[in-house]
Design a protein that fits this description.
With 138 residues, the protein is an alpha+beta fold. Helix content is 32%, strand content 25%. The chain has a 3-stranded antiparallel sheet, with helices on one face.
Length: 138
């Protein structure tokens, strides 16, 4: 089962928009998030259902990053001193693009190891290890 606790944080914004961000804190110290910008007229139940499904999908692959963090980490892995490794779910187009261009620009060497035979709708393995030998930018 899942032990769940929750809290609500309201932030003032300019305009009439709204957004939802849900962050899961795993027992292994990972933070997995799901979010959605709420369109005017959309029912709260629909938004909650969509964010819940997204978070459930992110948690189900077993990685320690969500889809939107993985591509951001690629830059820091390249600039770091030494070897970096991160477990992530299916590689989004953003992550695949970041791996390609960050490697070209920085000279850092990346490798991706599929850790699952199961594939997503884009034929990406459901669990991957991204590794990098960083350039030790000072």
């Amino acid at each position: 089962g899942i032990n769940a606790e929750y809290g609500v944080v309201e932030q003032p914004v300019d305009g009439s928009g709204a957004g939802v961000l849900v962050v899961a804190h795993t027992s292994t110290g990972c933070r997995i998030a799901a979010s959605h910008v709420v369109e005017r007229g959309r029912k709260a139940e629909q938004v909650a259902d969509q964010v819940g499904q997204q978070l459930s999908a992110e948690l189900s692959h077993g990685g320690c990053t969500d889809e939107y963090l993985a591509d951001q980490l690629v830059v820091f892995m390249a600039l770091a001193d030494g070897h970096s490794s991160v477990l992530t779910g299916p590689l989004s187009l953003h992550t695949r693009t970041a791996l390609h261009f960050v490697s070209l620009i920085s000279g850092a060497k990346f490798s991706v190891t599929p850790l699952s035979d199961e594939r997503d709708a884009d034929d990406q393995p459901m669990l991957n290890r991204i590794e990098c030998d960083g350039i030790a930018l000072k």
